[in-house]
Design goal:
176 residues; Rossmann fold; two-stranded antiparallel sheet; 31% helix; binds adenosine monophosphate
Length: 176
């Protein structure tokens, strides 16, 4: 399934560090029909449009923005620290070594709004879980999350599902 899209993802071994197989979506973006098919299939997988899409910096912006256009809904940006100009609310989350932080504008989300979270790839789920918690802290309901790629062996999709979020991904790369 979606083997045509799988063929457009380039794998770069040992990037950004030894042992990581980096799944590079820039080669998918270079292919017009492939990128369009990717967005069409993500739209079909998520079903009815949410109130808003929340996209995770940076590659999540590409797919989140295109999907928001396709579904006719708005877009909220979950950004790295100190990038947004207005008043922000943020959340720290653990990385393998150290910490990271994502932020959004405090007034971006109306309590009770139904949100779809979007990123290019889910691995351990740390980033997506932080995004979901940030949105929930603002009163949003994170009903679902959509990714181009899932690395199921790293357990992120299962973590999100256990937290009550419906997860869709077009492609799975097993064994890592
Ligand atoms: P995680 O928080 O572990 O689920 O990691 C997901 C985030 O890291 C996403 O924003 C991805 O873009 C990026 N990422 C993690 N692992 C990879 C990988 N093997 N190839 C490409 N991007 C990755």
């Amino acid at each position: 399934m979606n083997d045509d899209l799988r063929a457009l993802i380039r794998t770069i071994p040992d990037y950004p560090k030894p042992g990581v197989q980096f799944r590079d979506i820039t080669t998918l973006l270079l292919d017009g029909p492939g990128f369009a098919a990717c967005i069409d299939r993500m739209a079909a997988a998520v079903g009815p449009a949410p109130d808003l899409i929340a996209a995770i910096e940076a590659r999540g912006f590409i797919f989140g923005a295109a999907l928001a256009q396709r579904l006719g809904c708005g877009l909220v940006l979950l950004r790295k620290q100190n990038k947004l100009p207005g008043r922000v609310t943020g959340i720290n989350y653990a990385l393998e070594y150290g910490q990271d932080r994502i932020e959004m504008h405090s007034d971006a989300v109306t309590p009770g709004a139904r949100l779809l979270l979007v990123d290019d790839l889910i691995a351990t789920g740390g980033t997506a879980m932080a995004g979901a918690q940030l949105l929930q802290s603002a009163g949003a309901i994170v009903t679902s999350a959509a990714f181009v790629i899932d690395l199921p062996d790293l357990g992120g999709a299962a973590r999100l599902r256990a937290a009550g979020v419906a997860v869709s991904a077009l492609l799975a790369f097993e064994g890592e």
